[in-house]
From TrEMBL:
PANTHER family: MONOGALACTOSYLDIACYLGLYCEROL SYNTHASE, MONOGALACTOSYLDIACYLGLYCEROL SYNTHASE 1, CHLOROPLASTIC. InterPro entries: Diacylglyc_glucosyltr_N, Glyco_trans_28_C, Glycosyltransf_28_UgtP. Coiled coil: none annotated. The lineage of its organism: Bacteria, Bacillati, Chloroflexota, Ktedonobacteria, Thermogemmatisporales. This is Galactosyldiacylglycerol synthase. Residues 42-53 have a biased composition (Basic and acidic residues). Its main location: membrane. Residues 62-72 have a biased composition (Low complexity).
Length: 444
């Protein structure tokens, strides 16, 4: 049986790009497994064993997988590859530049935002791309030639121009899809001309695409991909709170700083404690072990009950157990919270790329920005006072705005670009054409 391959191009400049790729690839896997259970002999192989162990959801999710490509008929095995493009394909000094994202966005956010805005222009982004592309073009061509993908999916704006150039140089008709992961302030580089299709999360990003003058038939408004585990049923709030060792009646505030545990978690906790708010806290520090240890030591001084956790894999349960989330303005966490009908208080944002996420939250009535401790305390008081109509309004707005099935919709679109069963893939077509031509010559 032949094997098909889908390659996801990412960069670990922040955790959101890998999370989006994992969400879509997990949705593809679930669709294919559902199709296999209905009689399709195709199966999916994941190249990232540790990512699968960390992120792969359980069986039996409620998504409708019947529309998966090839459902109900025998199909090839499907291999999913996640490629950290700057690390695997970039030459010096590109890899070093990519590693500066975390420190730059954390310690010099104003400078990072300035660079974002200055480069967000057709002429300037072309200059940036002409500088970056030679540093990874050959490496990307080599990696693609090794993997021989049938479909390529990019979830990072700075990888699109070079991918279009690589496919042109390789002369391979591989479908190339771009999945935009910014909710409003999508950078110009997302919409590099030459991709087969573009997936956008909001109407605002669709309008940015159309303003570029690109083919309106190629843009698909499907939402922001979040992990399929957010579509699974969970226990009731009362049962979840009992499982987590929380008080059943006291309001729960979930504080999240992203995968690296940034976003002013310590300041937020201190403000809530000093105000002696009648709440209990779930604090997720992510991979920031130093912050985790620090908060554990300081916890005995707090005036509110709290549970401190590091990196977690049960975020849907934590969100469903909570009344409100306090988080930085990462698009993935925002959309995960919406899928759990959870009101949002934004504690900060990365200038430039996350500014539009703040607008998205406030414009749609699902939350507010509260960067200062006093603003955070006031926002929590307004939401959690007994009989708060504001809380109910935000819950309803979140329910209206939520698109938890987006990863499955994107997965179906990607699967639709795979070659039909029995047909040669883009890397086999040239070989097949050569064989046909040779046969014709011999038949003369």
């Amino acid at each position: 049986m032949s094997q098909r391959c889908i390659v996801f191009l990412i960069s670990d400049t922040g955790g959101g790009h890998r999370s989006a790729a994992l969400a879509i690839s997990s949705a593809i896997q679930l669709l294919q497994e559902r199709a296999a259970s209905n009689g399709d002999s195709g199966r999916v192989e994941r190249s990232e064993a540790k990512a699968t162990a960390d992120a792969r959801p359980g069986q039996g999710n409620g998504a409708d997988a019947g529309a998966a490509s090839g459902a109900g008929e025998a199909g090839p095995r499907l291999k999913l590859e996640i490629v950290e493009a700057f690390e695997e394909c970039g030459a010096f000094p590109l890899r070093q530049f990519a590693r500066l994202y975390g420190p730059a966005s954390r310690y010099t956010p104003g400078l990072y935002g300035l660079i974002f805005h200055l480069s967000n222009h057709p002429g300037r982004i072309n200059e940036v791309q002409h500088f970056l592309s030679p540093l990874m073009l050959k490496g990307l061509e080599r990696r693609l030639s090794e993997l021989r993908p049938d479909v390529i999916v990019s979830v990072h704006p700075l990888l699109n121009y070079v991918t279009v150039a690589a496919l042109r140089h390789l002369a391979r008709p591989v479908p190339f899809l771009v999945v935009v992961t910014d909710l409003i302030s999508a950078h110009h580089s997302w919409f590099t001309e030459g991709a087969t299709a573009y997936v956008v999360p909001t109407e605002e990003t669709r309008q940015l695409y159309l303003a570029r003058g690109l083919d309106p038939e190629r843009v698909h408004l499907l939402g922001m991909p979040i992990h399929p585990r957010f579509t699974l049923p969970v226990a009731s709030r009362e049962e979840l709170r009992a499982q987590l060792g929380l008080e059943p009646e006291r309001p729960v505030v979930l504080l999240v700083g992203g995968g690296e545990g940034s976003g002013g978690l310590r300041t937020a906790v201190e403000a809530i404690s000093q105000a002696r708010l009648p709440v209990q806290l779930l604090v997720v520090t992510g991979r920031n072990r130093r912050l985790y240890t620090q908060l554990q030591k300081e916890q005995r001084k707090w005036q509110v009950p709290a549970k401190i956790m590091g990196f977690v894999t049960n975020m849907p349960e934590l969100m469903h157990a909570s009344d409100v989330i306090v988080t930085k303005a990462g698009p993935g966490t925002i959309c995960e919270a919406l899928s759990c009908n959870l009101p949002i208080i934004l504690s900060g944002y990365v200038p430039g790329q996350e500014e539009g996420n703040v607008t998205f939250v406030e414009r749609n009535g699902v939350g507010v920005l509260a960067r200062e401790p006093r603003q955070l305390v006031r926002a929590l008081q307004e939401l959690l006072e007994p009989g708060s109509t504001l809380l109910q309004q935000r819950i309803e707005s979140a329910r209206r705005l939520s698109r938890p099935q987006a990863a499955f919709d994107i997965a179906r679109l990607i699967l639709s670009y795979l070659p039909p069963p029995g047909q040669p893939g883009p890397w086999e077509e040239r070989q097949a054409m050569t064989q046909v031509a040779t046969a014709k010559v011999k038949g003369r």
